[in-house]
Amino acid sequence: MSHHRRHHHRSSYRPLSAGYPGIGTEASGANGGGSIGEGVFMIIFGGIFFSVGAFVAWLMNSDVEGVVKENAAIGTGAGILFAVVGLAVIVCGIRSIVRYRKILTEGRRYRGKIWQHEPDPSFYVNNRPGVMLVVHYMGDDGQPKEVQVKTGSVNEGKFPLGATVEIAVTENGAILIPKSVSDTYLPEQEELLKPVIGMTLGAPQGTGATAGIGAAMAVACPGCGATVMMLPGSSVQCASCGRQFSLTADRMIV
Question: I need a labelling partner for 225 at 20 to 30 A (CA). Which of 46, 90, 153, 196 fits?
């Protein structure tokens, strides 16, 4: 296996609060740049609401035998409310897809590393929130940047920490390029995976609290650059080159 073999690991959600001194935050709005999966889900979900509401409103005002009309006004009002809510969700879904396609067409492409998973509260499936990725990549100025991208999925296992992804970035947001998750080696990945205390996403430099000590992190092996999952305060032997190293409590490799 090549020296850039990835070690997959599932981590629990936590707020991002580690980065780099002087790290930039580009197009990192709380909701990323939308995704096809999220947009389609919202359109389907909104369509169900709209259909149910429209049917109830029609039924309350129809001549169908057996329909109790004593509370027809209440039933009609509830149906209209459902239909309006459904229509609003459909519109939001369409906007998400339009925004996604615009960024896909106009955005600047970069390859970066998945640094953290974040919950995406804009949609849920079976009470599970969507997955948002925090990606580190090298900007045009040669400095590491940080951005959030939606995945349109609730399965964080599809996006292992330390994996390489391709993103498209504009001033209005960023998106994940479909099917771009891989174990591709990046020459700058050691720097992109360097767990140096920095800033909370979206906060001024140096003002964020440090990350939880118990959270696993994607770290680049100082010997061969392979991605290794570690807990702060632990030691590990790289499976690719055999080098043993430690990650201190303040997230420094020694």
Answer: 153
E strands, the chain, in order: 24-25, 108-125, 128-138, 144-150, 164-170, 173-176, 217-220, 227-230, 234-237, 244-247
Q: Is 173 left (phi over 0), alpha (psi -120 to 50) or beta?
A: left
- Least confident interval from 30-34, 114-118, 142-146, 214-218: 30-34
The whole model's pTM is what? 0.58
Q: What is the distance between the terminal CA atoms of the chain, rounded to a whole angstrom?
A: 25
Instruction: Give the Cβ contact number of residue 44 at 10 Å.
Output: 12
Amino acid in position 25: T
What per-residue confidence (pLDDT) applies to 243? Answer: 87
User: Mapping DSSP to helix (H, G, I), strand (E, B) and coil, where does residue 91 land?
Assistant: helix
Q: Do 38 and 150 form a contact (C-beta atoms < 8 A)? A: yes
Coil, strand or helix at 76? helix
Of 69-73, 158-162, 168-172, 236-240, the poorest mean pLDDT is in 69-73
The domain limits of the chain are: 24-34+108-247, 37-103
Query: How many distinct helices (H) and strands (E) make up the chain?
Result: 3, 10
Buried b (16+ CB within 10 A) or exposed e, 206-240: eebeebeeebebbbbbeebbbbbbbebeeebebeb
Distance CA 227, CA 34 (A): 28
Highest mean pLDDT among 68-77, 97-106, 204-213: 97-106
